[in-house]
Amino acid sequence: xxxxxxxxxxxxxxxxxxxxxxxxxxxxxxxxxxxxxxxxxxxxxxxxxxxxxxxxxxxxxxxxxxxxxxxxxxxxxxxxxxxxxxxxxxxxxxxxxxxxxxxxxxxxx
Length: 109
What we know:
mainly alpha
């Protein structure tokens, strides 16, 4: 899944939820369930997600929503192969970007 968000230091929970096309409550739930999500909170208590949090959310989304992992299965997978899963997600994103560019080139011909 390609998430189109501008490069920023922090993202609001609304921006994150809209980018993933899920409810903000799901993002808050995942925050409680997964230790790798640690958004900062501003003076008002609003969650502010970093690019690292965004990368972790992409991994969680991929495992749970696209691969069909249970929450426990996703937690176990992340615990056992954190480095591998992050690399796999990055590879998939790059391949999707290449596919998108190739389709643009194909349609221009």
